[in-house]
Amino acid sequence: MHMRRTNFLASIRRRNGHAGIVNPFTAIGRQFGRARSFASNNPVAANYAIDGLLVFGALNLAGSNNNIFAQRLGAGDYHLTMLQFLPQIINLFIIIPAGLFADSLRSKARMVSWALIAASFFFVIVATISFVTDQPLYFFLVFLALANAASMVYNIAWMGFFPEVVEPERRNIILTLRSRVGILISLVAPLISGSILAAIPGEEGKIIAHQVFYGIVALMLIANAFHLKKIKATNPAPPKKLKLEEIKKAGSRLIRNKPFIIFTGAALFFHMTWHLDWTLYFIGQANYLYMNEFQLSLTVAGSTFGQFVTLKFWSARNQRHGVELPMTFGILGFALTPVAMTVSTALPIGAGPTVFLVLHTVAMMFTVTVGLNLFQCLMSVLDEEYRSFSVSIYTCLMTLSNAIMPIVGVAIYRSFGGNIVGLRITFAIVFALRLCAAGLWWLRVKYNQKHDNNGN
Fold first, then answer.
1. Is residue 78 a contact partner of residue 283, using CB atoms and an 8 Å limit?
2. Average pLDDT over residues 315-337
3. Which residues contact 436 (CB under 8 A, 6 or more apart)?
4. Using only C-alpha atoms, what is the Rg of the chain?
């Protein structure tokens, strides 16, 4: 037994290149060395990984605080729906002009950076809101909506810029890396913020902590604005002049783009079912599962962990089967989340939060394909000549869903009594609709396969 243990230890030492005990700092140094080597050999992938780290971290830190901060400022159920409704209504007015403007630029990189700078500015205002007004809730809703609008402009410009930088065969690999880094920071950020909030005893101290978090968000976005200047387009789309004739031509081309129309219809129906319970989840967690700040952060971290551990698996399925079919499983994963809420609220209060965390984490193991694949599916049906305009139309429709459907979800919940029974009935409706959305997407996949086999 002693000899076997000695041989085992010796094998570990040989694998690490020395005869002594492994120094953890040396191991960490090697990992940093490998990361530096990768960055020097793959600069585009490394730069997009840093982009994911900063943007996912910032927006996740803000998003995990929005509902509970609004509640501390006095928000009710419908005020919470305004966190979704107001930003999306503002976005509806800027999405198409932003897309047209992006298509008119020789370089979309500047638009990406300036959008981040604008978002950072609005988050600075959000961070100081309770110090400058007696009605912080309404100012918070307005300036958070403006920050969200600037983030939307960033997203539109980013989606138009990315295909100009990365060739199609490398997109899944680079997006997987960006998502992996983004998911990691999204795992850490809510745990840290939730732990800090749970440790602070008074409401006044918690409000100040929220504001510090928004200040950190602003710093991360401004850092990314300057970092993205390192990324250069290798295949820029020719700029389009902002003329009425050009807009008519873009609209005409869009209407005749049948793959885009079919994709957008299936994606819109899925988003409508997805957005339906966004506010209801927080209501269920806070009002019926009685989850505190740390438990809420654990839910976000659990969701992120579930996506992280399966990201490599789903990326490999994408490489093998394409990005269309795995997306179906992502939608089915979202169909499981209403089940998690329904089951956990039927249990004793002490057990409900834990069961919800476990079931929700399991469901999230499938949903990583939505974030990873949906954008790639969209890119495959875009008109190359009017890429940003097409993205804007698509985003406009998804934004409209994001504005309306959370309010519809709360209205359904209230129509059934606004109590635990109403919550469960509403989640049963959401479950059924998401199954339909998965079926519709699967039919689209089969339709595409049939037409590909026929050579159309």
1. no
2. 91
3. 269, 273
4. 23
DSSP annotation of 242: -
Pick the range with the lowest mean pLDDT from 148-152, 157-161, 239-243: 239-243
CA geometry: angle 134, 138, 142, nearest 5 deg? 130
Query: In sequence order, what are the residues at sequence separation of 6 or more whose Cβ sits closer than 8 angstroms to the Cβ of residue 354?
Result: none
Helix axes 203-227, 168-199, angle to 10 degrees: 160
In this structure, what token pair is assigned to residue 356? 């919800």
What would the two tokens of residue 169 be?
């065969």
Confidence of residue 132 (pLDDT cuts 50, 70, 90): low
For residue 137, what are the contacts with CB-CB under 8 A and spacing of at least 6? Answer: 70, 73, 74, 75, 79
Name the pLDDT band for 6 (thresholds 50, 70, 90): very low
Q: What pTM, to 2 d.p., does this model score?
A: 0.71
- For the chain, the structural domain boundaries read 40-451
Which two three-digit tokens encode residue 26? 């040396």
Compute the distance between CA of residue 277 and CA of residue 285 in angstroms, rounded to an integer: 12
- Measured from the Cβ of residue 309, the count of other Cβ atoms closer than 10 Å reads 14
**Cα(345)–Cα(424) distance, rounded to whole angstroms?**
9
Q: Report how far residue 217's alpha carbon sits from residue 223's, in angstroms, rounded to the nearest whole number.
A: 10
Residue 26 pLDDT class (50, 70, 90 cuts): low
* Range with top average pLDDT, 106-115, 166-175, 407-416: 407-416
CB 27, CB 12: distance < 8 Å: no
Provide mean pLDDT across the span 112-116.
92
CATH of 40-451, one of 1.10.4160.10, 1.10.3720.10, 3.30.70.20, 1.20.1250.20: 1.20.1250.20
69-78, 135-144, 153-162, 402-411, range with the lowest pLDDT: 69-78
DSSP 315-353: HHHHHHH-SHHHHHHHHHHHHHHHHHHHHHHTS-TTTHH
